[in-house]
């Protein structure tokens, strides 16, 4: 037999295995495509969750940094105030003429004086 184009036509029995193979390949391709699509969607969902988690963590870290900055400022202000008080006490001590023969010196602590 020949087809309309004049080429010899394969008998139907010879086409059956080829058709089954092509159908199996098509089915495998669809299954693979479905699996990959599902995997991609799952990964996208996971990525969105990670973005939310990271965003939340960043917000919490900003709050903590702000709080730490405020505490550092308070400590620095306290140190400055203590430094001023120490300076005033040292000036008062010097003006009172505390004796220098008591064993104390410039490195003497205020509690020893």
Secondary-structure-based class equals mainly alpha
Quaternary organisation of the protein chains: single chain
Helix % is over 70%
Q: Taking all residues together, what is the mean pLDDT?
A: 83
By DSSP, the count of extended strands is 0
Portion in strands: under 5%
- How would you sum up the global shape? rod-shaped
Question: What string, H for helix and E for strand, traces the elements in order?
Answer: H
Cα Rg: 43 Å
The biggest beta sheet is recorded as:
none
Total helical segments: 1
**First-residue to last-residue Cα separation:** 124 Å
Low-pLDDT regions: none
How would you sum up this structure, described in words?
- By secondary structure, the chain is mainly α.
- It has a domain of 77 residues.
- It is 74% helix and 0% strand.
- It is rod-shaped, with a radius of gyration of 43 Å.
- The model has no long low-confidence stretch (mean pLDDT 83).
């Amino acid at each position: 037999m020949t087809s309309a184009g004049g080429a010899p036509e394969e008998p139907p029995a010879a086409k059956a295995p080829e058709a089954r193979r092509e159908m199996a390949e098509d089915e495998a391709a669809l299954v693979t495509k479905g699996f990959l699509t599902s995997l991609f969607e799952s990964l996208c969902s996971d990525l969105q969750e990670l973005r939310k988690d990271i965003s939340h963590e960043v917000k919490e870290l900003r709050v903590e940094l702000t709080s730490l900055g405020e505490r550092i400022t308070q400590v620095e202000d306290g140190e400055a105030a203590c430094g001023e008080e120490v300076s005033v006490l040292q000036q008062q001590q010097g003006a009172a003429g505390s004796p220098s023969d008591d064993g104390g010196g410039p490195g003497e602590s205020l509690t020893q004086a």
